[in-house]
Amino acid sequence: MILLGSLHIFAFLGGLFFGTTLLFLVKGLFRSKQIEKDDFLEITETHHPKLFGFLRQLCDEIGTDEPDAVFVSPGLEFMVSYRINLLGIAIKPKRDLVLGVALINSAWAF
Fold this sequence. Notes:
2 domains, 4-stranded mixed sheet, single chain, alpha+beta
């Protein structure tokens, strides 16, 4: 009887552990973490045609798709962020390119 009671406790604790782990993993499918864009400024091709021409040529040479939006930031950032959510499993997520103005200015200095 004592052995049978301890098995129920282990089964309950194991179920609680695996249930919590499953909840943690499934929660990530429904949450979309966005980067903070308060300091970023979105730029368009109409205002910066040379930059977008360079990006288009670079994407063609590398063999990747162009970003959906381009932002500039005041810092040294250079990153691509994905807008990921549950639909990202079935369709391609949107990508944002962030270019740091300080990084661009330091690259032109060389």
